[in-house]
Amino acid sequence: MSSPGLALAPPAKNVVVYRNGDPFFHGRKFVVNQRQFLTFEAFLNEVTKSIRAPLAVRNLYTPRHGHRVAELGDLQDGCQYVAAGFEKFKRLDYLNHGRKVLHGTSNRNGVQHCIRGSCRTTTSQHALGCSYCSVFRNGDLLSPPFQLMLSKSPPLQWDTLLAMLTVKADLHSGAVTRLCRLDGTQVVSGEELLNGGYYVAVGTEEYKKLSYFELLVPQDSACRTLWYV
């Protein structure tokens, strides 16, 4: 016979959580049950760590209309939510991973663009700036790359860029001091970054040459194209 406590326990809920204002974060899956999370705050703390939020997560919103979730019991099984700190909810097409943001972008520099989930690459492989790139964490083969959005005008100072990487990468070794290509060569300015390129954030330790791309980028990804230069 099952105990009355177990019979009355609510079933676990499967939810997906996105980062507020990040159109390239594909979401992180969570299984929510009372044994693991006794309070809503405990769940928010776990979300903060799991999605590597730059600031502590204090609010959850529905992705389409931005309705705030007030307590753990309001979470619905199979639904998606957007995690935020104390900032306002940012309206993006989270469920399509930012494809509406990318749709219709011009390609004046001859670089790869993803439009509605498909790839289109022009002849030139050189870009003066970068609208977004993917960054791995040095020596980490468990975490997928995070997306770094960059502005071409005005371009960010290199120290500012490294500071942004430090917050997003959250390396165990501390601050990001270098950004390397997958072959280990160091990038020294924002002008060298390629749109859609893959890089590795490195701290004070040596660069670890591993199969980041092969192991952490899904083979069926619609835009599984690699830039080395």
Automatic annotation (TrEMBL):
SUPFAM superfamilies linked: Doublecortin (DC) (SSF89837)
Keywords on record: Repeat
- Annotated Gene Ontology cellular component terms: microtubule; microtubule organizing center
Could you tell me which SMART domains the record lists for this protein?
DCX (SM00537)
Q: Which InterPro entries match?
A: Doublecortin_dom, Doublecortin_dom_sf
Q: Which GO terms describe its biological process?
A: intracellular signal transduction
What's a Pfam family in this record? DCX
Q: Which domain of life is it from?
A: Eukaryota
* Repeat found in the keyword field: yes
Boundaries of every Doublecortin domain copy: 13-95, 131-213
User: PANTHER family given for it?
Assistant: DOUBLECORTIN DOMAIN CONTAINING 2, DOUBLECORTIN DOMAIN-CONTAINING PROTEIN 2B
Q: What is this protein called?
A: DCD2B protein
Q: Which species does this protein come from?
A: Penelope pileata
Chain's gene name: Dcdc2b
